[in-house]
Automatic annotation (TrEMBL):
The keyword Hydrolase applies. It comes from the Bacteria. This is Transglycosylase domain-containing protein. The keyword Transferase applies. Residues 63-251 form the Glycosyl transferase family domain. Residues 679-713 are annotated as: Disordered. It holds the Pfam family Transpeptidase. Keywords: Carboxypeptidase, Glycosyltransferase, Hydrolase, Multifunctional enzyme, Protease, Transferase. Residues 353-620 form the Penicillin-binding protein transpeptidase domain. InterPro entries: Beta-lactam/transpept-like (IPR012338), Glyco_trans_51 (IPR001264), Glycosyltr_51/Transpeptidase (IPR050396), Lysozyme-like_dom_sf (IPR023346), PBP_transglycosylase (IPR036950), PCN-bd_Tpept (IPR001460). It comes from Nonomuraea rosea. It catalyses: Preferential cleavage: (Ac)2-L-Lys-D-Ala-|-D-Ala. Also transpeptidation of peptidyl-alanyl moieties that are N-acyl substituents of D-alanine; [GlcNAc-(1->4)-Mur2Ac(oyl-L-Ala-gamma-D-Glu-L-Lys-D-Ala-D-Ala)](n)-di-trans,octa-cis-undecaprenyl diphosphate + beta-D-GlcNAc-(1->4)-Mur2Ac(oyl-L-Ala-gamma-D-Glu-L-Lys-D-Ala-D-Ala)-di-trans,octa-cis-undecaprenyl diphosphate = [GlcNAc-(1->4)-Mur2Ac(oyl-L-Ala-gamma-D-Glu-L-Lys-D-Ala-D-Ala)](n+1)-di-trans,octa-cis-undecaprenyl diphosphate + di-trans,octa-cis-undecaprenyl diphosphate + H(+).
């Protein structure tokens, strides 16, 4: 620095000191101060104090905390909730004349001035606690690098600006109020912002419980929290220990404690507990549901126009988020999965539960824990949900999609026992026999869809569904129209897990699209709600830091006639007694559902519902379902030659529902409108049980149709 620059800086600093000398002890504005400050242009300037970043807490439906989000982990506390030892320690080391001066400490400033003039720059602070609070507010308010640099700039211009703000702060608040604000905004290191978070992080106690040694440690940490961050290693902890002792010596020097008390405190070890700060979905007992909630807020414009605004809303807002998760149902899903699939198995089972008529997600569970450890077989994405909510590409849903073709046929007026004769194989008779929703011909007359064995003869809507006969559903889809089936599926919220457009090919009804359990469970929940479809929802209420409450209600529509849903439920309930799930059995109350298995057992599903709860279970290998099929494989300690919808997903669903609904009175399905659906069309045959020739095993692990061609584009 040049001599001229030093003299200029000295002159400015001298002016600051001159102005400061005129400041009354409590920060008022006397006549001498007014004269001096006007000469230098130093006047109080209102400081904008945006709310401090506070942690957001997520609650389950019962009010239990299940997750925490934050940008800065902070828990604001009143000054009365901070131990007197902590207050004494921080004032002793940072601003021992705090209660005796105004916005600036004259002695401290002159002491710093002398040091700075000899060093040619700003080598020593001398800032009062009020000035330090101002600096922290400016730093926390900065949204750009330019603003952050300005808040940290080593210049007299910044000091003057801080002084003007400090003068206004001293006029606005009492000394105790300023101290409280400072203790809540200060960074102590190790990711802890504010004295309450620091007390918990460093020592596992509340700020009100801090001992002398602990208080001195935290007071010493604020000077350079990065250099003394105990979480960074032994050398940093040694520096922190040294700073603690400096604080204790200063407290003794000021006669705030006795030399004996100081010596006893210095004899103690640092006491660093490294208490983990709660936060993020990895620390949640329900990580997949946690990820769903987090991504719902970050992706939904209802919570802010831009992702940046939504991120700040979540991580800085100090929110309390009430959710739909039911801990009892969550436990039921977790235990059922654990019973049938091990975390160490290559295939992953996942399940979602949804309450019909509300869209409320009650549980999200998977066979693997959430995390990044391959050695521990952890999942790094939300396998239960779609990509928008942190998921991956999903798994082909197989014959669970036949339900959408069934619904379309019922919507068009087909009777339960109406159908047609089908063969062992189905081939489109001509190129225009299937059209997608763009009106394009997408049929392939050279390609044949087959059943595994048998499956020919007359099939009605009921028997074709119970047997899950591929050739019947191909012919049924052709009859009702491919685009109409796709439209039905979309009306129930069906979208690909990866967010790409649905693949609109003739084998749509065989489940060629990759799905996630939340989406499939929610679609089936609409049938349980008699055609009332509701958007999936995980958040019911958000309370902000000021206590303002915003509630969220289901967004629902009537997707199709109630009578259509009743007829579909009637048919799908037969899957348990006459169809692909009869080897597994029912759940002791009215229930309906559909198994699903894809080409050569790449993936397997079961989706089902009662009027009170719906659920969907999938299983597949995340390494690649097509190349790692579910054949000749051990899952959950049990060997399977081939895995079908009734082999693993069905039993998981059954066990889950029996436990989740325990204590809930059974609700019956509404009887079928026989006048509309009970008669026969021109092609009719008596309803009768089907042989084991479907796409899903009638007996657990037994043979079934392989849905040949379901992965063909």
């Amino acid at each position: 620095m040049s001599s001229i620059a030093r003299l200029t800086g000295a002159a400015v600093a001298a002016g600051v000191v001159a102005a400061a000398i005129a400041l009354p002890a409590v920060g008022g504005t006397g006549a001498m101060f007014v004269s001096a400050s006007e000469d230098l242009g130093i006047k109080p300037e209102e400081l904008k104090e945006p709310p401090l970043a506070e942690k957001t807490t997520v609650l389950d439906a019962k009010g239990n905390a299940i997750a925490t989000f934050y940008e800065e982990y902070r828990e604001n506390v009143a000054l009365a909730e901070v131990s007197d030892l902590m207050k004494t320690a921080i004032i002793s080391i940072e601003d021992y004349r705090y209660y005796d001066h105004g916005a600036i400490d004259i002695e401290g400033t002159m002491r710093a001035l002398a040091k700075n003039l000899t060093s040619g720059g700003i080598a020593q602070g001398g800032s009062s606690i009020t000035q330090q609070y101002v600096k922290q507010v400016l730093l926390n308010s900065a949204t750009t690098d330019k603003e952050r640099n300005a808040a940290l700039e080593a210049s007299y211009a910044r000091k003057l600006k801080e002084l003007r703000y400090a003068m206004a702060v001293e006029k606005k608040y009492s000394k105790d109020q300023i101290l409280e604000k400072y203790l809540n905004i200060a960074y102590f290191g190790a990711g802890a912002y504010g004295v309450e978070a620091a007390a918990k992080r460093f020592f596992g106690v509340n700020a009100s419980e801090l001992t002398l040694s602990q208080a001195a440690t935290l007071a010493g940490a604020v000077q350079d929290p990065n250099a003394t961050d105990p979480n960074l290693g032994k050398s940093h902890r040694a520096l922190l220990l040294n700073r603690r002792n400096v604080v204790l010596n200063r407290m003794a020097e000021l006669k705030k404690i006795t030399p004996e008390e100081a010596a006893a405190a210095k004899a103690k070890k640092l006491g660093w507990k490294a208490t983990a700060l709660p936060g993020g979905c990895g620390a949640s007992p329900y990580p997949y549901f946690c990820m769903y909630v987090r991504n719902e807020i970050l992706s939904n414009k209802a919570f802010g126009k831009t992702k940046k605004i939504r991120t700040q809303f979540l991580n800085r807002g100090g929110l309390t988020i009430q959710t739909t998760l039911d801990p009892k149902m969550q436990e039921a899903a977790e235990e059922a999965i654990k019973k049938h699939v091990h975390a160490s198995d290559n295939p992953v089972a996942s399940e979602a539960l949804v309450k019909p008529g509300t869209g409320e997600i009650k549980a999200m569970a998977a066979s693997r824990k959430y995390g990044n450890s391959k050695r521990k077989h952890e999942m790094s994405y939300n396998v239960v949900a779609n990509a928008v909510h942190g998921g991956g590409i999903g798994f082909q849903a197989g014959s669970t999609f036949k339900t959408f073709t069934l619904l379309t046929a019922l919507k068009q007026g087909m009777k339960i026992n109406e159908g047609f004769t089908v063969g062992q194989g189905f081939r489109a008779p001509y190129y225009s026999s299937f059209k997608n929703c763009k009106g394009e011909n997408i049929a392939d007359p050279t390609f044949t869809v087959t059943n595994d064995e048998g499956g020919g003869g007359f099939k009605s809507l009921a028997t074709g569904t119970w047997g899950s006969v591929n050739t019947f559903f191909m012919q049924l889809e052709q009859k009702v129209g491919l685009c109409n089936v796709i439209t039905t599926a979309k009306s129930l919220g069906i979208e690909r897990a990866d967010g790409n457009p649905l693949q609109e090919f003739s084998t749509f009804t065989l489940g060629i699209n990759e799905m996630d359990p939340v989406t499939v469970a929610n679609a089936y929940a609409a049938i349980g709600a008699r055609g009332k479809y509701c958007e999936p929802m995980a958040i019911t209420k958000i309370t902000d830091r000021d206590g303002k409450v915003r509630t969220y209600k289901p967004e629902c529509k009537q997707a199709f006639d109630e009578e259509v849903a009743d007829a579909a439920a009637n048919i799908l309930s037969g899957v348990f007694t006459k169809g692909t799930m009869r080897g597994v059995g029912g759940i002791g109350r009215p229930a309906a559902g559909k198994t699903g298995t894809t080409d050569a057992q790449s993936t397997a599903w079961f989706a089902g519902f009662t009027p009170d709860l719906a659920g969907a279970v999938s299983i597949g290998d995340p390494r690649g379902a097509v190349t790692h099929k579910l054949n000749n494989i051990t899952i959950g300690g049990r060997y399977y030659g081939s895995v079908f919808g009734a082999s693993v997903p069905g039993p998981i669903w059954k066990d889950t529902m029996m436990s989740a609904l325990k204590g809930t009175p059974p609700t019956s399905f509404t009887p079928v409108d026989s006048a509309r659906f009970g008669g026969c069309g021109s092609s009719c045959a008596p309803v009768r049980p089907q042989p084991d020739n479907d796409d899903d095993a009638l007996e657990e692990g037994g043979p079934g149709d392989t849905n040949v061609g379901t992965t063909r584009d």
